[in-house]
Specification:
The protein has 655 residues and is an alpha/beta fold. It is built from 14 helices and 47 strands. The longest helix has 16 residues, at 202-217.
């Protein structure tokens, strides 16, 4: 359970506080407040943010990594905040709006990596590790810090703190860097990509995917040296005899594949019947015997195109021998078993214009970086509990899955330890989960359509960073988009007909331009730290537009603009150039949350007592838990083009 500290009451009366609320704005400095206790607490009792070790390497690889840490007591946040990576606190401390959300630091403690905490060394990768595994907590203001050294975390450069200058100097002698004071550290700049950088990289990620796709599709242009039925009796024989950089042509019709065929050279297998947009009913079918995988690409730049594959076996998990060869439990569960097409240690490979009928996995990428799966149709098991994924990527960074239709099965697309993957323009239907990310950062999910998932449309898990979820349409699922991790960008998505449309579990992230319409709950604010920017979203026709978990007040506006709330009341604010209302909207407030559903609540909402209480909640720390306020709600929808794709038409308003 997170540790918390309590603030003393403000030395002002209720009437004075209400009067001041209108004069000084949403936040007032708690000048008379101080923590009753700011002694260091066990780090596992803090509300933690920062570097997530579970996303890189195995548990054994990172077991001895000791990331330098800070814990901070804030004046307007009742829980102690723990930062994995002191540079993460420095970056957050200097960010716009940080003090408004948290108040000022009452006390900051850091871990001592000097003699009192055990001798610190760096691993081969530059990760700090302590001889005895324990570091004492010391006051940050009395510590010295080594910056620009060889010390790293899996997320990049890190700061190493010391209680004694001599210990810091010794560390510099061994690993380089510069010793700075606490004041100097707070002025230091660190290369930490924030959510705005991720927003700016969306076009770059698309461009990189375009380059990979162009290079992969050029593999179709290899000369046709071997034709099955003419130059070789069977496909297996053709694959064995085809020279590298050639094409094996498979005529239309059904070709039996009694044993798994492995492609161990950079060749292309192309079906002669249909594919690539040709207008023909002819098909080239590779048919397994129902007892294993059908086709394995085990070479860089191998390619297949214009094929239909069926007769896949029904084994969904690894054999005992396969489990013995892998130390990853997830891979044994989801990355083994029978597959229609498997890419195994095959980088820059291509699977294009392929239809797969499978009771298990359709396409599996294992150690297949920068490979491309495009225009693929997978029909999986209609009982997802008996099936596997339509497309799975394991340790395949930079892969591209696009323009594909993935129906039924456990998950439409499943990523495991595959950073930088691009998933775009896919249609996912009737899966358990449409897109499922595990231990995968830097992913671009763009313009996918997800319908009728049993559980979740998009599920981002295990604290990743730098994901972009943009322009997706999620309909008729239990939970729409579940975010986790940090420093991500979630924008321009349409989510409708769900129990929960969107969760803001990814901290230090931007959520903008989304339409949440016709859901039971539009957005569930489930990140404990109020570090997200939530603006320009449209909340229309939801039973509850938004709710909040344990934590402090979330302020959902930026630079004088908030969100559109169906039912919000007020007049155009003539004091600003923005098209906003002159009354704030709090979707977690018992009155405001009824404005779009029950007649008579606008009158109650305008009552002086109600408005005074709302103002007070914004100024007194103890009254700010589990709530959301938008100080500048929009007069009209921000995303009318997206809203047209729903059945909801909010009342017309013109500022």
């Amino acid at each position: 359970m997170a540790s918390f500290h309590r603030l003393r009451p403000l030395a002002v009366g209720l009437v004075v506080a209400i009067a001041l609320a209108g004069a000084v704005g949403l936040f007032a400095v708690d000048a008379g407040s101080e923590a009753s206790s700011t002694e260091p607490v066990p780090f596992h009792d803090t509300v933690t943010t920062g570097v997530a070790l579970e996303n890189v390497g195995t548990e054994d690889d990172l077991d001895e990594v000791d990331v330098p840490k800070a814990q901070v007591f804030y004046s307007q946040y009742e829980y102690v905040v723990g930062y994995r990576g002191i540079e993460r606190f420095v970056d957050a401390h200097g960010a716009s709006g940080h003090e408004e959300r948290f108040g000022y630091p009452l006390a900051v403690y850091v871990t001592d990596y000097g003699a009192s905490g055990g001798d610190v060394q760096l691993t081969e990768e530059g990760y700090p590790t302590l001889e005895d595994g324990n570091a004492d907590w010391i006051e940050a203001e009395s510590a010295v810090f080594v910056v620009d050294s060889d010390a790293r975390t899996p997320a990049g450069e890190t700061v190493v703190p010391f209680a004694d200058r001599e210990d810091a100097d010794a560390f510099v002698d061994d690993y380089g860097g510069t010793v700075v004071s606490w004041e100097g550290l707070l002025e230091h700049e660190f290369a930490i990509d924030d959510a705005a950088v991720i927003r700016d990289r969306v076009d770059q990620r698309h461009a990189r995917a375009d380059e990979l796709t162009a290079a992969a599709t050029s593999l179709r242009d290899r000369p046709a040296d071997v034709v099955v039925g003419e130059d070789a009796a069977t496909l297996e024989e053709a694959v064995e005899t085809a020279p590298a950089e050639s094409t094996v042509v498979v005529p239309e019709g059904v070709h039996e594949v009694p044993d798994e065929i492995e492609v161990d050279r950079p060749i292309t297998i192309v079906g002669q019947g249909g594919g690539d947009g040709a207008e023909t009913d002819a098909e080239t079918t590779l048919r397994g015997d129902g007892n294993g995988s059908v086709l394995v690409l085990a070479s860089d730049r191998a390619a297949i195109s214009d094929l239909r594959i069926d007769g896949v076996g029904d084994a969904t998990e690894a054999t005992d021998d396969e489990r013995a060869d892998s130390d990853d439990v997830i891979e044994g569960a989801y990355g083994q078993g029978d597959v229609g097409v498997e890419l195994d240690e095959a980088s820059n490979a291509l699977v294009e214009n392929v239809t797969i009928e499978t009771p298990t996995t359709g396409v599996l990428l294992r150690d297949a970086p920068e490979s491309v799966v495009r225009n693929v149709t997978v029909h999986g098991n209609d009982q997802w509990g008996d099936g596997d994924m339509a497309v799975t990527t394991i340790r395949s960074p930079g892969a591209v899955v696009e323009d594909s239709t993935l129906v039924d099965g456990r998950d439409g697309i499943y990523l495991h330890r595959s950073d930088g993957v691009v998933l775009r323009n896919n249609a996912l239907e009737n899966n358990r989960i449409g897109v499922h990310l595990m231990y995968s950062s830097g992913t671009l999910l763009a313009d996918n359509r997800i319908e009728d998932a049993t559980s979740t449309g998009i599920d981002v898990m295990t604290d990743p960073e730098h994901n972009a979820v943009v322009g997706n349409e999620v309909r008729n699922v239990s939970r729409g988009i579940l975010m986790a991790g940090s420093r991500s960008y979630v924008a321009d998505n349409l989510v409708t007909d769900t129990d929960v449309g969107l969760t803001t579990g990814a901290g230090n992230s931007i959520y903008e331009g989304n339409v949440l319409a016709g859901n039971v709950v539009g957005v569930a604010a489930n990140n404990h730290l109020p570090t997200n920017e939530v603006t320009g979203n449209d909340f229309v026709g939801n039973d509850n537009h938004a709710n909040a978990r344990i934590g402090t007040l979330r302020v959902w506006s930026e630079d004088g603009e908030g969100n559109f709330w169906h039912g919000a009341i007020g007049s155009p604010d003539v004091t600003t150039d923005e098209a906003v209302l002159d009354r704030s909207h709090a979707p977690t407030d018992p009155v405001d949350q009824e404005l779009h559903r029950v007649d008579g609540t606008p009158t109650l909402a305008r009552a002086p007592a109600t408005e005074a209480l709302t103002a007070l909640e914004g100024t007194v720390s103890g009254m700010r838990s589990e709530s959301i306020v938008d100080p500048a709600p929009l007069c009209e929808p921000a995303n009318p083009d997206l809203l047209e794709y729903t059945e909801w038409e909010p009342p017309d308003r013109t500022c």
